[in-house]
Design brief:
Layout: H1 16-28, H2 32-44, H3 49-69, H4 75-96, E1 105-111, H5 119-130, E2 133-137, H6 144-154, E3 158-162, H7 171-181, E4 189-193, H8 199-205, E5 209-211, H9 214-231
This protein binds CO-5-methoxybenzimidazolylcobamide.
């Protein structure tokens, strides 16, 4: 009888570099349990949550993205990879969101209408919580009215919008224009992010800042909030 488990890899026995390679493979194959296990092992070995996130999970997802673009992977496979990534993020979340301080500000986040990518937006939410912000997460496919209702009813200081598609990023301008029409644009800091965006786009749509990643979003939010407080 052949033992089908002969080839099983024991994640905890791999050195760090091989474990990270294995995490890339497991993410690619959408293996949520293995991703959760690998994430926990790296943390137990003293890796910081940010290091695990950047060097294992985000780096692995980048490989998935390249093969998705090149037509090697398709939507169902990428969805599995995204779910596996979320299993790792669920372990990191309490660590990234750990804070004893009272909220330094309130941010409403959401992925714009027409767009269902939420991994980057979720990361921004986690890092913001970790930095002491109160986060109101509106989820995906968010229309302008919902963003505006949420910032007003929650007394938020910041609106953070995410878009991953070149076809949905222009919707950010619709939201900002609606805020202008309502005369409330200047009452809020508007941050935008997502892989296809850049500084020029941010400027063109009238947002306050483009955040290339979640850590930048935290730094920029802190800085602009401090400036706004000093102005008032
Ligand atoms: Co999509 N997809 N996808 N997808 N997908 C991309 C974005 C794409 C670049 C893949 C590719 O071709 N290489 C491509 C877009 C091309 C383009 O527009 N130019 C694409 C496409 C085409 C599509 C579909 C149209 C495919 C189809 O159906 N034919 C479809 C669209 C669905 C829709 O939204 N209406 C689609 C669907 C999907 C899945 C559902 C399968 C899945 C999403 C699952 C989910 O999110 N729950 C998916 C995925 C996973 C991806 C890739 C592979 C990975 C995205 C991701 O999670 N990255 C992606 C390829 C890629 O980006 N490499 C791709 C990891 C994440 C941590 O990074 O989201 O960039 P990111 O977030 C970063 C920063 O950008 C920034 O901080 C984050 C953390 O550092 N940031 C912010 C993001 N939002 C921010 C907001 C802020 C601040 C910073 O506010 C303050």
């Amino acid at each position: 009888m052949t033992d089908e488990f002969d080839d099983d890899i024991i994640l905890s026995e791999l050195p760090d570099d091989e474990l990270v390679e294995q995490i890339f493979d497991d993410l690619y194959d959408g293996l949520a349990e293995e991703i959760a296990e690998g994430t926990q092992i790296l943390l137990d070995r003293g890796w910081s949550a940010t290091k695990v996130l950047e060097e294992a999970l985000v780096a692995g997802m980048t490989i998935v993205g390249v093969d998705f673009r090149d037509g090697i992977l398709f939507v169902p496979e990428v969805l599995l990879a995204a779910n596996a990534m979320k299993a790792g993020m669920a372990i990191l979340k309490p660590i990234l969101a750990e804070t004893g301080a009272k909220p330094v500000g309130k941010i409403v986040v959401g992925t714009v209408k027409g767009d269902i990518h939420d991994i980057g937006k979720n990361l921004v939410g986690m890092m913001m919580e970790g930095a002491g912000f109160e986060v109101i997460d509106l989820g995906i496919n968010v229309p302008a009215e919902t963003y505006i209702e949420a910032i007003e009813s929650n007394g938020a200081n910041i609106l953070g919008m995410s878009a991953l598609l070149t076809t949905t990023m222009p919707y950010m301008k619709v939201v900002i224009d609606t805020m202008i029409e309502k005369g409330i644009r200047k009452d809020y800091i508007v941050l935008v992010g997502g892989a296809p965006l850049n500084e020029e786009f941010c400027e063109a749509i009238g947002a306050d800042a483009y955040c290339r990643d979640a850590a930048t979003a935290v730094d920029v939010a802190r800085e602009l909030l401090a400036r706004a407080v000093h102005r008032n």
